[in-house]
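explain this:
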Amino acid sequence: MIKSKIETLLWRLGILNDEYIFLRNINSMKELSENECSNIWNVKNVHGDMNIKAFNNYFSRINKDLNIVPKDVILSIGCGDGILDKIIVDNTAATIYGFDFNQTKIYIAQKNNPQGIYWQQSFIEKIDKDINNVNKIYSFSVMQYCAPENLKSFFEMQLEFALRQKSKRIIIFHGDVPDKNLAVFYYKNFKHSVVEKYKNNLRLIFNDGSYWHDMDNVKYIVSEICNKFSFKYNLYISPIENHYRSNIVLNILK
């Protein structure tokens, strides 16, 4: 700890260079198990200490791409405490199903949004529920908790579920995903050349079990799975202006 503080001071004084401190920072972060992550979420708000204005802003960003109407049936991946689901229901009268890997959050979500139907499961296991009327799927600030090596399972879970739905068209939205290509907006205190040089070394973003994602890898995985299920699809990756995160929108036609 003392060594780290001294090094940071020397960096601010211009004695240690950006490259040394940048690599030190990204290599010093610890990966967490699912149980460790779950324990953190028992005492932490899913989106931090956000006010209703912030959640309404999230809803606006989601609805811009999902265009939710009363007849829609939505699957909420990583529902957390259910506040965002509640805002969706209140504003659109849509039906919500949802799940999270943390059982405590499921209890809270059901309390916050009694109209929703919730259960516990991980983000990468098959959805073993008798549900066939979903036409829209969404998550917000959730995909970052899926390790890059589990990303294929994350999308397979959704697309296999989509295959079982009656609707011929399914829209999937993942909001607020840390995007490696936009890392310069996160590491503003470092030279852009250093961040660009080592962006492929980026893995963990925070010490809460969250990860950076490579959007080229997302494109490859989505293409592979959609071809496997013979889906026609359009994939849009929209960077959030002047930010290090992107939104992912996947339109599927069966």
